[in-house]
Amino acid sequence: MMNIKDRFPLAGWSVSGAERNTDAQILYLTDGLLKERLLFNSNFIENEIRGDKRIVLFVDEVHERSINIDLCLALIARLLTEQPSLRLKLKVIISSATLDKSVPNLFRQIPQLKFDQYQMPFSQTLHKVEKIYRPKENILDVVQELCRKRQRHDQILCFVSSVTDVYQYCNLLDKLSHGIVIAHPLVQSQSASEQQRCIEHGTIFFSTTVAETSLTFPLLKYVVDTGTINVSIYDPKAKQTTLKEVPASESTIKQRLGRLGRTNPGEYHALYDSKMERRTYPKPHVCQSNLIDVEFSLRRSFLDNGLSHLKKFLPDPPEPTLIEAAIEELERLGK
Predict the structure, then answer these.
(1) What b/e string do you get for 263-286 counting C-beta neighbours within 10 Å, with b at 16 or more?
(2) Among 216, 304, 297, which residue's Cα sits nearest to residue 260?
(3) How far apart are CA 252 and CA 63, in angstroms?
């Protein structure tokens, strides 16, 4: 016999290729699927707010500033600007531990839109975190040192700039310790269940940016940070994308430091110069990527218009040369 929870589920989810209870009151979905619904279903919001119904769009981890997240923000801002009647039935919540002011400014400038901004009154951690600068020290030497002084179940999380570095350091640590010290890789391509298994059974981890916010380490005691990050940068003149290692932004460093101090005191070991010049926030991906796929998606959507139109709704619009390069390439391909 079907119970009321089965007939009226509270929450459902949807990811690429799989979904469950999509008619539930609360639906969790990826930023990519939210973008697709906003782009290719012109009645997406209207269908959800028929009668007295209202809808809340909760967009989390906005600080990542991926192309999908920025497009979601732009499409939501466009709806609220061009369809004022939606403002009474649509509530948008934007959440992030750190956030560039360009994002709230995007919505603040929409006429007659009720706008509220809440900031945490303090940023102290529950437990004390000691910050230790160790510029130019070898990351494997530091990890082995921490292994010797840690308690049995203390976890060590190391941030490096690339997937290649993640696997390389895991292998090198295994060889240096003759198989006694085992490190686990954490990268974006792993499934959530695989990442969770690593965290449950491991104590030493090498990770890219994936561990900055989306993963929880119950016994984390040490963070070792190289202070760098790999970014893909597109050159519209050369028509090629290169991977470049750059200093992580101040907000990224803050995210990494913030992994500590939640369940017990911790130590943050910075393998970089404290005086190194950094951006306050990471540069949005839409401002440094090849935009041909974005331009193509916008043109075949119900908007029937490209970035030249949508850019005014982006928190940080890309340079005209990036948009022009995408348009020229599409025209060359006959799209």
Answers:
(1) eeebbbbbbbeeeeebeebbebbb
(2) 216
(3) 9
d(CA 331, CA 323): 12
CA distances from residue 169 to 174, 195, 272 in whole angstroms, order as listed: 8, 17, 18
Distance, in Å, from the CA atom of 331 to the CA atom of 32, rounded to the nearest integer, reads 26
pLDDT at 117: 82
Q: Residue 333 — very low, low, confident or very high, per pLDDT cuts 50/70/90?
A: confident
Q: Quick check: 198 and 186 in contact, CB under 8 A?
A: yes
Count the neighbouring beta carbons within 10 Å of the beta carbon of residue 39.
18
**Length of the chain measured in residues:** 335
Could you write out the three-class secondary structure of the chain?
CCCHHHHCCCEEEEECCEEECCCCCEEEECHHHHHHHHHHCCCHHHHHCCCCCCEEEEECCHHHCCHHHHHHHHHHHHHHHHCHHHHHCEEEEECCCCCCCHHHHHHHCCCCCCCCCCCCCCCCCCCCEEEEECCCCCHHHHHHHHHHHCCCCCEEEEECCCHHHHHHHHHHHHHHCCCCCCCEEECCCCCHHHHHHHHHHCCEEEECHHHCCCCCCCCEEEEEECCEEEEEEEECCCCEEEEEEEECCHHHHHHHHCCCCCCCCEEEEECCCCCCCCCCCCCCHHHCCCCHHHHHHHHHCCCCCCHHHHHHHCCCCCCHHHHHHHHHHHHHCCC
Residue 331 clears pLDDT 80, i.e. is over it: yes
Tokens of 64: 């990542």
Say whether pLDDT at 122 is over 60: no
Token digits of residue 196: 């969770």
For residue 22, pLDDT over 80 is answered with yes
Q: Are 40 and 301 in contact (CB under 8 A)?
A: yes
Report the C-alpha dihedral over residues 148, 158, 181, 264, rounded to 10 degrees.
50
